[in-house]
Amino acid sequence: MEISISKTIHADVKFNISEVIRQQSLRAYFQPIMSVTGKKILGLEGLIRGIIPGSAQIIPPKELFEAAYEAGLTTELDRACRDQVLASFEDYYQANQDLLLFLNLDTAIIDEVGGSNYLCGQVSQSGISPKNIVIEINESKALDNEALTQFVTTYKKKGFLIALDDVGAGFSNMDRIAGLKPDIVKIDRSIIQDIDLIYHKQEVFKSLVNLTNKIGALIVAEGVETRGEALHVLKLGGQVIQGFYFAKPSNDFVLKAELIVKTAEVVDEYKQLLLCELEDYNQKCLTYTQTVNGIIKALAVVDLPDEFDRQLDKCLLNASGVDCAYVLDEAGIQCSNTIGAKNIDACEKLVFHSAKMGVDHSIKNFYYNLIKRRQDTYISEPYVSMATGSLCITYSRVFRLTNKKYILCVDFLETQQPSGDYAVGYH
């Protein structure tokens, strides 16, 4: 991940890329990658800035690498950058030999130099152990999938760690990610930005967490800039964070104790958040239970299941927070219509439709957990209902009428910002 900084050159200022490379007029910057739950600095990402020879003007990475590409010097610049980063990392490595160095590799040149041992030679000469080196690659930029796979396999055997960078940006190939089996997956900042506010980003992040867990990789959230984003990354299963919230890239980075203190503060606040959410959930459950008890009481006095619709209509007239309700028989077949459907706008869209009498719900969790696992009550995780397009939870409860078992299902609207494992359900 590259991050632009201030005091860079203006677009109209020219520089000689050949001289920059020849004179090694480059400066290494480092940004910490924090293990929040571990309360430690897991590693440093080595970033690079060019310096116009004979001046103090900084060349940002975009202009630097574009100039190298146009001059046909991409490989030479890539190697010079690694030399500078490895040399600058040596002091940090001597202070802490468990510290990882995240080293960017221009994936576009793998097709050309994938079989060379130049990188191994650089690392060997630096005196840094390969086990401390994380090679960051962007798989979407590699044209030759076979060459990329061979490169990853070769360097993993040599003891290097492999990280896939900018995952979730653009057109990342999920099949390729699973096939490469990286040690680390870095989630792009486009997913992380405002993740505490945007439901769909939460779902994408959660899916990526599930994928990385299955392939045995560690997930790193890039570009975290706010406390809310940091807390939400933890909530959704991420434990390692990189971003301005902890520290900006610096050419004189110091392994400060303040960074560890900040991770502890985030963890403590996250614990408080969990406690508040648990209290809120318990209060919601109490409200849900009171509403469901009232509906079941009304249903229990009817003579026949044919009267379920009428009773549900009466109950839902003044039921606050209820999206819709319906009744299933013991086999999971809907024996009432779906009553309620408060989200009129969504219901006018053809993609959303309420389930009718006779629909089979026997594979749904809110049925299966009650009947097959013999539970009395089931409360689902929040999900987007295909009945109304609303975010809701389903509260289901077994009741009896004339010695027959039925299941009341009530969908309660979720009014707070969603943030968990939500699915899409048909009602």
CATH classification class of the largest domain: Alpha Beta
CATH superfamily of the largest domain: EAL domain
Helical residue percent band: 25-40%
Strand proportion, as a percent range, falls in: 15-25%
Question: Biggest sheet, open or closed, and with what strands and sense?
Answer: 8 strands, mixed, barrel
Number of domains: 2
Question: Any idea what the radius of gyration is?
Answer: 28 Å
The coarse overall form would be elongated
End-to-end CA span: 44 Å
Number of helices: 14
Widest sheet, order of strands: 1-2-4-5-6-7-8-9
Can you give keywords for this protein?
alpha/beta, TIM Barrel, disordered C terminus, Beta-Lactamase, disordered N terminus, 8-stranded mixed β-barrel, 7-stranded mixed beta sheet, elongated, 427 residues, single chain
Task: Quickly describe the structure.
With 427 residues, this protein is α/β, with parallel strands linked by helices.
Description:
The protein is of the alpha/beta class and 427 residues long. It has two domains: 239 residues, EAL domain (TIM Barrel, Alpha-Beta Barrel), CATH 3.20.20; 151 residues, Beta-Lactamase (2-Layer Sandwich). Helices cover 38% and strands 21% of the residues. The chain is built from 14 helices and 16 strands. It has an eight-stranded mixed beta barrel with strand order 1-2-4-5-6-7-8-9, surrounded by five helices. Helix 10 links the parallel strand 8 and strand 9. Helix 2 packs antiparallel against helix 3 and helix 11 packs across helix 12. The radius of gyration is 28 Å and the shape is elongated. The N terminus and C terminus are likely disordered.
